[in-house]
Amino acid sequence: MNTQDEILRIEKLRIEAANGNVLVDGVDLELRRGEVLGLIGESGAGKSTIGLAAMSYARPGCRISGGRVLIDGIDVRTLGAAGRRDLRGRRIAYIAQSAAAAFNPALTLYDQVCEGPLYHGLMSKEEARAWAVELFTALDLPSPRTFGERYPHQVSGGQLQRAMAAMAMSCKPDILVLDEPTTALDVTTQIEVLALLRKLIRDYRTAALYISHDLAVVAQVAQRIMVLRHGKLVEAGEAGQILERPRMDYTQRLVAERAGAGQWAEAPPRSGARPLLTLAGIRAAYGPVEVIRGVDLEVYRGETVAVVGESGSGKSTLARVIVGLLPRKAGEIRFQSELLPAALAQRSREQLRRIQLIYQLPDVALNPRQTLLEIIGRPVAFYFGRSREEVRARVLELLRLTGLPADFIERYPPQLSGGQKQRVCIARALAAEPDLVICDEVTSALDPLVAEEILRLLRRLQEELGLAYVFITHDLGTVKRIAHRTAVMLRGELVAEGPTPQVFAPPFHPYTEKLLSSVPEMRRDWLDQVLARRGGGQALMAESG
Amino acid sequence: MRLVSSMPWSARIGLLIIVLNLGGALFAPWLAPYGEAELVGDVWAEPSAQFWLGTDSLGRDMLSRILYGARTTIGIALLITVLSFALGILGGFAAAVLGRTVDMVLSRIVDTLMAIPVLIFALLILSVLGTSIPVLIGTIAVLDSTRVFRLSRAVAMNIVVQDFVEVARLRGEGLWWIMRREVLPNAVPPLVAEFGLRFCFTFLFIAALSFLGLGIQPPYADWGGMVRDNAQAINFGGIAPLFPAAAIALLTVGVNLVVDWLLSVHARPQGAQVEF
User: Fold this and answer.
1) What's the Cα-to-Cα distance from B187 to each of A540, B161, B192, rounded to whole Å?
2) How deeply is B199 buried, as exposed, middle or buried, from its count of CB atoms within 10 A (0-12, 13-18, 19+)?
3) Is B272–A60 a contact, with Cβ atoms under 8 angstroms apart?
4) Hey, are the CB atoms on B272 and A18 less than 8 Å from each other?
């Protein structure tokens, strides 16, 4: 490769936070035309920060304090504000993780996709529209001619993510920065978006920085991979080499974690013939829309039952019905033999105590202005009426049980990391001494290695305390590792239910098979194989690349 | 003291003004050279060594009147603001936490109250019920609380949809705990800023009422009333009404400087500094 081909070069990049913390330390990177470079690491590794720095942008509170960023030989940091504005969007464009948050809800998609070319004076309004239609077509969006007339809330999450790709491509940039573009999507949608993004990059020979925490996803699109940790480079190499022969210890652990998704959890002996929780013919609706259509499920003491399905299948709604946040329309819920009232307000304090819910996003599930003592201690005081000293002692015990240091007791949630916050949520649930814990996507907002630790913690607690879990998730890797039994949910109904190995072995329900085959695997040719097998996705198939 | 040293100069000036005013109000009997209602000299005497700010329409010492006036004006304004906040926050939070029906009822009551111009409404009530200080405080507090209700309801609406409030509901917590421990701590910054602004408005509103003769009654000194009593002096080239007017203006500016600083501190994320 000669240097002519090089489109982006970052040298000795250093980024600091306002409080002096070094976020990115001495990272070098080069990107050639038409090449896709994957940036891998857990949150806080500095991946997104580097991606934004490639556009010479630093988030509020951060500062690029050293190094050079060269786009096609031009040092962007010396350009000045006007020069950088001219470059951004035109030569280097950004695709953010959450399309829903990146679009202006008050403007049509046309307005937003055509804004770049018009702002930079590259096209006339008609040309920009024609180009947008071409992009919409290339991205396989429904009725591309009129798609742009819609507003962001009128299209689905996967479509919006593709519209953002169109927005980024609107000025035909040389470089795309893709920041976790498929992370917010569920597995079946992720495949489509992934295939289309890859096709787009190949068709227009755009260079790309692909940022993700999921090695298997990056492996499908990137030729080279850089592994980052704590703002420093851990390892860089060809994608195949990183996947098959990782050199550094950290990379090996990442690969092993992803590959370890194959082991099954063993079913515990069923103690007592009577189920702990029985759902019979549950129906529930949001207004006129019926979301749960007749669900039967049993959960026994000490076992984990996973409820899987893509977003919109009604699995989170089922959790809300069980705890009483959404009163059921029909059917009955029994806890042991006791019939639970439909609505939260009618349930006794004791009934509330015995079923606890853990949320997906620990950030919003913890009151940022309460100390951990108050957060974890409140259920102890509320349900058991303990004295101040007893509460404190119990909180310390719970912190120890969930693997948190004792001096965290006076801390506030914003001072903790994502994984630590989720531990606090678990401690709070345990404080009520429940029999059943409902885990609603508890690991999906966490980095893979942190998620792994949380799962291990949950499993240990189950063994020690004999808890039953209802595990709601779209991540089949998690299911395989933790669930004794699995229920597959599709459009408000359970389409398959049974011991996990049985559900995930042939003969499958067709939907189970689709879900299973959508989980990215650690092979570079996985995406091509899946697309080839599905046949129907001919249009999505990557051309020889 | 670290707090003061981190303040910009404008906020420090504001704080100084507030401290001076509060000091004047608290220590008026010791600081004032003459009594509040004491007739000590000619009508509208020019400022002199004996009467630093001259005398008023009845020949009372202006400086003493302003110091005593600070007591009534600031004291009553503070009481009204605290009361209106207690009412408004309680109502606003309850509307947000308890859901649609309660919200509907409370909001429509507030809408009705807000539809009537505040000054006219206050004049009406005060002329019917008479202008005693408790009635004055009650009236303005209720009227003011409608504005606080609106703000605290809006702020609380964004908080009650968060998962941690749902956690509290799932635990079986009652309204009082949710309002006091889950919502309030997260609503403090905007409410504190609003408190400063409301305090100024109340304070100007009392001055306006006093000017119209329905505020604080003589012989108690209050700044708005003093402007009214001395307004005639302008006709004779006197400057007497300018002193109480300046006191009103000064305190308003002072409080606003501090509020501006509070707002800017809360509006900006920790150490934010955007690089374009």
Assistant:
1) 49, 13, 9
2) buried
3) yes
4) yes
pLDDT for A63 equals: 84
So what's the pLDDT on residue A279?
92
Q: What is the Cβ-side half-sphere exposure of residue A392, based on CA atoms within 13 angstroms?
A: 6
Q: How far is B167 from chain A (nearest CA, A)?
A: 7
Which residue in A19, A63, A365 is closest to B164 by CB distance? A365
Instruction: Please determine, for residue B268, whether its predicted confidence score (pLDDT) is greater than 60.
Output: no
Region of residue B265 (left: phi > 0; alpha: psi -120 to 50; beta: else):
alpha
In chain A, residues 58-97 whose CB comes closer than 8 Å to chain B: 58, 60-64, 81, 84-85
Confidence of residue B2 (pLDDT cuts 50, 70, 90): low
The answer, for A325 touching chain B at a CB cutoff of 8 Å, is: yes
Weakly modelled stretches of chain A, pLDDT under 50: 1-2, 537-545
Q: What is the pLDDT of residue B270?
A: 39
Among chain A residues, CA nearest to B270:
A61
Is the CB of B100 inside 8 Å of chain A's CB atoms? Answer: no
The reported pLDDT for the residue numbered B97 is 93
Instruction: Estimate to the nearest angstrom the gap between the alpha carbon of A483 and the chain centroid.
Output: 20
Quote the pLDDT of residue A265. Answer: 60
| Inter-helix orientation angle B184-211/B118-129, to 10° | 70
pLDDT score of A428: 95
Mutate to test the interface with B, among A55, A85, A367 (most CBs of B within 10 A): A367
Token pair, residue B109, equals 């009551």
**Interface residue A53 vs chain B (CB under 8 A):** no
Given a cut of 90, whether residue B53 has pLDDT beyond it is no
Which three-class secondary structure state does DSSP give residue B117? coil
Q: Which helix (H) or strand (E) holds A294?
A: strand A289-299
Q: What is the pLDDT of residues B71-88, one digit of tens each?
A: 888 888 889 999 999 999
CA distance A129 to chain B (A): 29
Q: What would the 3-class secondary structure string for A474-535 be? A: CCHHHHHHHCCEEEEEECCEEEEEEEHHHHCCCCCCHHHHHHHHCCCCCCCCHHHHHHHHHC
**Per-residue CA distances from A249 to A242, A262, B202 (Å):** 12, 21, 66
ipTM of the complex: 0.76
User: Is residue A111 exposed (0-12), middle (13-18) or buried (19+ Cβ within 10 Å)?
Assistant: middle
* pLDDT tens-digit readout, B180-194: 999 998 888 788 888
> How far apart are the C-alpha atoms of A463 and B165, rounded to whole Å?
30
Question: What pTM was estimated for this model as a whole?
Answer: 0.76
pLDDT of residue A271: 57
Residues 6+ apart with CB under 8 A from B265: none
In the three-class reduction of DSSP (H, G, I as helix; E, B as strand; rest coil), residue A385 is classed as coil
By the 10 Å C-beta count (0-12 exposed, 13-18 middle, 19+ buried), A417 is classed as: middle
